[in-house]
Amino acid sequence: MERRIAESADLDPECHVLDVGCGIGGPACHLARLTGARIRGLTPNAAQLELTRRLAVDEKVADRVTFDRGVAEALPYPDNSFDAVVFFESPCHFHDRRQFFLEVRRVLRPGGRLAGEDWLAMEGLSPLDTDRFIRPICEAWAIPDLGTRTGYASAMAAAGLTVREAVDLRDEMALLRGFLVDKANRDDVRREKDGTPDPIRKIIMEGLLRLGEAATAGAFTLGRFLAVKA
After folding, report:
1. Strand, coil or helix: what is 173?
2. pTM (2 decimals)?
3. Cα 148 from chain centroid?
């Protein structure tokens, strides 16, 4: 997916790129190797920040990849700082995505690109299906709420960005293969979850089960986006 996002954002060695919600830095390091671009990763988590910096050294990209601590809704960078902003399954965790998109427009240079992919709720879910399938995902994965593809595109446009692509990834790949859509597999994971004494493992497996159930029901998907600052 990093390659697809890099291609859509037209990343090259001349680009200065911001990865918002970079986690422990894997995609940022991969993008640096893949494109030669200069990457700056941002995370609000101090423990993650330490891991990102170690990873950049281990991956031998510390000359092109740096990391900072900060939040998506108040990006700690001057106006017109980046040629591209990217995200990988991080905005679903942001408390104010609309403010994030406003901040993206601020820090992008004219002609700069916003590109990324994220977890989404399907359009037009009933309150019953939202409560049955989406709320458990949010609880399991510490997500304030899941947006929709249309909601993301509308928020980007409201921030002053021109949306070029807002794609349901099920139209580009066999997306469901990445989830527990087979009932027999879910039953196996459920038995393993019930039998493990590790509380962290239980939480992770419960989260995977929730994703599989929602994906199977057609309530959950991933979206890919590309928007441009005029």
Report:
1. coil
2. 0.93
3. 13
Q: What is the mean pLDDT of residues 201-211?
A: 92
In this structure, are residues 93 and 43 in contact, taking their beta carbons and an 8 Å threshold? no
> Which residue, 50, 48, 53, 57, is CA-closest to 23?
48
Q: How far apart are CA 136 and CA 191, in angstroms?
A: 19
**What are the residues whose beta carbons fall under 8 Å from the beta carbon of 16, sequence distance 6 or more?**
37, 38, 40, 81, 82, 83, 84
Correct CATH for 2-122+143-175+219-229 of 1.10.150.130, 3.40.50.2300, 3.40.50.150, 3.40.50.300? 3.40.50.150
- Closest-CA residue to 33 (of 10, 56, 5, 51): 56
Of the candidates 73, 89, 103, 192, the residue annotated as catalytic is 89
Average pLDDT over residues 10-27: 97
Record the tokens describing residue 99, joined without a space: 């403010």
* Angle between helix 26-35 and 46-58 (nearest 10): 30
Question: Is 165 designated active site?
Answer: no
Which has the closest alpha carbon to 88: 5, 197, 170? 5
pLDDT at 178 over 90: no
